[in-house]
Amino acid sequence: MTNTPAANHRSHVEQDQFLTILSREEALARFEAALFPRDLPGEIRPLADALGCALAGDVVAPIDVPPFDRSNVDGFAVRSADLTSAGEAAPVRLMLNDETIACGIAPTRPVLSGTTTAIATGGPVPRGADAIVMVEHTQPAGDRAIEIRRAASPGQSVSYAGSDIARGEVLLRAGTVIGSREIGMCAACGISEVRVARRLRVAVLSTGDELVQPGEALRPAAIYDSNGAIVTAAVSENGGDAMFLGAVADDEKALESAMRAALAICDMLVLSGGTSKGAGDVSHRIIARLGKPGIIAHGVALKPGKPLCLAVCDGKPVIILPGFPTSAMFTFHDMIVPVLRRMAGLPPRADAKVDAKVPVRIASELGRTEFVMVSLVEGADGLIAYPTGKGSGAITSFAQADGFLKIDALADQMPAGREVEVTLFTPHVRVPDLVIVGSHCTGLDRVTAPLARAGLTVRSIAVGSLGGLAAAKRGECDFAPIHLFDDKTETYNTPYLSDGLELVPGWRRMQGIVFRKGDARFEGLSAEDAVRAALADPACIMVNRNQGAGTRILIDRLLKGARPDGYWNQPRSHNAVAAAVAQHRADWGMTIAPVAHASGLGFIPHAEEHYDFALVTARKQRPAVQAFFDALSSEEVRAALTEAGFRPA
Ligand code: AMP
Ligand code: MG
CB 605: neighbour CB atoms within 10 A? Predict the structure, then answer.
């Protein structure tokens, strides 16, 4: 089936966008074919405002630099022929001319044979002189003469006119991106303005009824507009002139007028959200009315980023990024930046790549090119690339990754241990000094605070206790924070250690029942009684935790096999449990005391959980590891942990 723009009738577009999914390469090729070749509009910019712009044409040097023969030292301008016989035992005496050539002073007297003129570094060499003798190699001989005891070669300590930059020479080539060095070269030639490719004006619009701008109060069911800020900044990072126009509700009329207004003032329009076929998703329908040829690709076999929509309206690219932040950032980086740079006359972005090993199997969808965001850590033999697996709805998946790896459309997985190429988001990776892989706890931030102040970089990768243990056994981290209860021995953590690992005690976290303050069903009860009360009320809804969580074991023991309403709602974090109760989606659950208190919820203490560290013995002596455990036992950190509601061991 073809998907030429002409074949994209309105009815077809409205029927099913995703019937015509293109491969990533095909989508990009069609998008570029619809946009290029095109004229690059140029503009003259003052040198100071040209930073980051690409030159529209060659810059030719209008003058010689230096503009005259120039002395490189403080000393005396001489005729070298006068000094041929000079030596330690045979000083040559030269009479001083009656002037001193300081910087910026043009000489007036020639240097005749037997004479010399005092000259400063940067001074123009006077007529007749062909060398400069350093002041250190001369002696005064009365107040009108000097003595020199060594010969001088012609040209000694002289920079000739044009030796740095020659008039007529191509100083900078078209397409060069102007940085401080290029600005310096132009300034040295007296160039005050340059012709550059005009900065691309890129309008950015967010769409969605749920969006609130940062700085405003969050209303129920709303979220902050992160895509707007991210895309705007990413446009600037890639040399564009970004204009953020705010968020528009999912209202066809309002959105259409916002898009038309944006297109009137920009060269490129980037929207985010509303690309799916959801009831409120209208932007792609509007595009068809904005100009020819319209939609080029809607639906790309790309993960993250399948709902990406690429269009060209009367020569201007109109892009709808997926709403999910990681999808939006990734597709912008992968598909939009190359086009943006090319339209702005900038050279393609130079992607830096490193080789790394994948520590775990990564499942992948067959038929879609999949990009997996990864964090890099130093392993025993080379870099390890950890998937930052929070999914495309999470902003941190992209923002905290060092780069990404690619899984082919035809592969359904990447096996553990595979050597891969990782494309970096920034040209340099700084491998962290301390790597923590395991269960996350807000208490960790209290311990790492002094390390950060000391300039140590810490990376904490949250994969849960069991994932952390596995990483520690493979030597991919310094230690794994764990809180694993062993039913048989009724103890925490120690039974889970294996050879090469040792336990360092961390802190205790009080686990308990959370409920909304004032809920008479729970107020004043013990945890056992509270659960009994909850089970007695069929209208009461609980929120559970995921299988494998330490908290889940405690919940199951209290429930004694009961499966009340809400049991299958199993979020993966303490905070999610508190949010569910605070927002009335559930009436009770189990979380740790600091989280319950931070959410203003009622709390019934139940059992103290041990949050400890499985330390890789082989890494014990590393300075950052020492620094961590020093901090852990310091008074300052113990006080901070206590203040946050933890009980240091
Ligand atoms: P949509 O493509 O509009 O259906 O959005 C998909 C998901 O991305 C929804 O959870 C949206 O709330 C979210 N989303 C859409 N736009 C933004 C934005 N500008 N910032 C953060 N999240 C967004
Ligand atoms: Mg939306």
Answer: 13
Instruction: Report domain extents, the chain.
Output: 5-37+199-343, 43-65+166-194, 70-159, 353-424, 508-611
Edge to edge, what strands does the sheet with 309-313 contain? 241-248, 201-207, 268-272, 316-321, 309-313, 293-298
SS3 64: coil
Cβ contacts of 48-51, under 8 Å, gap ≥ 24: 48/183, 50/178, 50/183, 50/193, 50/194, 50/196, 51/178, 51/179, 51/180, 51/183
* Architecture of the domain made up of 43-65+166-194: Alpha-Beta Complex (3.90)
Residue with tokens 């553990």: 416
Alpha carbon separation from 85 to 57, 77, 80, 90, 97 (Å, rounded): 54, 17, 10, 7, 21
pTM of the full structure: 0.82
- β-strand 403-407 against 170-172: which pairing, if any? unpaired
**pLDDT tens digits along 15-37:** 444 558 999 999 999 999 999 99
C-alpha span between 294 and 258 (Å, rounded):
17
pLDDT digit string, tens, across residues 266-324: 999 999 998 876 666 788 889 989 999 999 999 999 999 999 999 999 999 999 999 99
Ligand 1 centroid distance, CA of 555 (Å): 34
Mutate which of 227, 285, 306 for ligand 1? The one with the most ligand atoms within 8 Å of its CB, which is 227
What tokens appear for 129 in the block? 């002189």
CATH topology of domain 508-611: D-Maltodextrin-Binding Protein; domain 2 (3.40.190)
- Please, what is the angle between helix 635-643 and helix 442-453, to 10°? 150
Report the pocket of ligand 1 as residue ranges, CB < 6 Å.
Answer: 206, 208, 210-211, 223, 225-228, 272-276, 278, 322-325
Q: How far is CA 405 from CA 63, 194, 360, 402, 414, in A?
A: 50, 40, 13, 10, 10
Peptide bond into 317 cis (omega under 30): no
Q: What is the SS3 string spanning 353-367?
A: EEEEECCCCEECCCC
Output the CATH code of domain 353-424.
2.40.340.10
With the C-alpha atoms ordered 146, 152, 157, 162, is the resulting torsion angle positive or negative? Answer: positive
pLDDT for 50-65, tens place per residue?
999 999 999 999 999 9
How far is Cα 562 from Cα 552, in angstroms, rounded to an integer? 13
Ion ligand 2: residue ranges with CB closer than 5 A: 208, 273-274
Q: How far apart are CA 228 and CA 393, in angstroms?
A: 15
Cα angle value 416/421/423 (rounded, 5°) = 125
As a whole number of angstroms, the distance between CA 554 and CA 533 comes to 17
Contacts of 18 (CB under 8 A, 6+ apart): 277, 298, 299, 306, 307
**Mean residue pLDDT across the chain:** 92
